[in-house]
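hi!! sorry for the late reply, been swamped w classes. u asked for the two structures so here they r. pasted raw, havent cleaned anything up. first the sequence of the first protein and right below it the tokens
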Amino acid sequence: MMDKARELSSLYKNALLDDVIPFWDTYSPDEVNGGYYTCLQRDGRVFDTDKFVWLQGRQAWTYSMLYRNVANNESWIQQAKLGVDFLKKFGMDGDGNFYFSLTREGAPLVQPYNIFSDCFAAMAFSQYGLAAGDEESLDLAKRTFSNILSRQENPKGKYNKTYPGTRPLKGFSLPMILSNLCLELEPLLEPDLVEETLAQCKHEVMEVFLDREQLLVYENLYPDGGKSDSFEGRLINPGHGIEAMWFMMDLALRTDDRELIKTAVDVTISLIEYGWDPEFEGIVYFKDVKGYPPQQLEWDQKLWWVHLETLVALAKGYRLTGDKRCAEWFLRIHDYCWKHFADPVYGEWFGYLDRRGNPLLTLKGGKWKGCFHVPRAMYQVWKTLEQVG
């Protein structure tokens, strides 16, 4: 792995800058209404014009991040502005909560039930504000973050369809995302708030949702940390847990917490081994911890983001610890990804494979897949492997 690190770093850099970003540059911007089209066919043609707010935020973040960290490319900051201006104008209701989806012109379609719209809007405003020196965006990022913290006990609020009190479960998603979001916004926030939020996130991820004996991360638990013997309570999403582990590695680097780094690596390997499909390779989407049939019919699909986040976690784990397991799994998953997800004809990556590794849908973007996981992972792998050795 160490011998190949420089070669692999160049591969991911070139894929990002010469393939993935040019694909979104070409087909995604809506120059008429602002924002981005994300529902793109294999060849980039738009097949639906609805705009999903968290994908708008993610794409604006991606371009802003590249502008700050790779090069002051004027077209990148303009692309970021296209999304940020659209979100400022149309993304929020009167209380500052972000809708889930909008029409191409910006009219609300789906109510602000999903707090992740707010999370990715805050990331976009923060990164763009820092890139462009835009105080309005920085202020919006701080206000949105404060709003997220105020909603974290009941993220869906009045849009929660679960009957109150019968089976109260808390989800892993929010503390996981908050750990990354807080690091993103750290330059804008009071130090005490950063430390308090990160400590809480670390506790939730590593002490509550992580089962230390199984080395598996649960998706849903009772408020007291107890396990529910139900579809939701038995659910394991290997990719989710693995993504959280590289967030934990980033968090650990702030204080050189070697124990946290080692645990995050061990959990990453455990989740890969747990989710790995020994017959057809790749990591499955969902599993039931007791081996029962999962309620998600897509449980055995192989998803782009799961494998990309795994590559990031393994690259970081190897750089930080030199653990040979990280190197071995990285090369194995790297080979799987470039064989099955990368599109050699039209560029970018497929998102959804069947269990055997064939594309189920040939779209390059949709309601859930946008300009985020592929470019972010390629950037992270490029920069991480550049530091190996």
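now the second protein. again sequence first, tokens right under
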Amino acid sequence: MEIEELRVYQQSMEIAEKVWQIVEKWNWFAKDTVGKQLVRAVDSVAANLSEGFGRFHFQESKHFYYYSRGSLYETKTWLTKSKNRNLLSEDDFNMFSSEIKDISVKLNNYINSIGKKPNNNS
């Protein structure tokens, strides 16, 4: 299996591109303060998934998946700040919030599946 086949990775990459498209239109001050933080946080979700995927032992992998989850929640905070500061529309905020919730569920399920042996009691 390749990292690109994981739906949680695909969604993490997609949301990062959507965020980028919005932030690149902001004025210099907004980009330099909130924008950079938001982009770094959302990019870090998929980046940490990749790093964990490339690790040898599942416990090492989980470590990076936890970082990915942390970055996902950091993204949520920066999106909230963006909405509160009128940089992000209510519709975009709601769309991103829904995507983050979905990614969070998939990421938690993926983390919980790592290192478990398949059930052979069919």
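hope this helps!! also noticed smth abt the second:
Residues 13-113 form a domain with the de novo design (two linked rop proteins) fold (CATH 1.20.1440.60).
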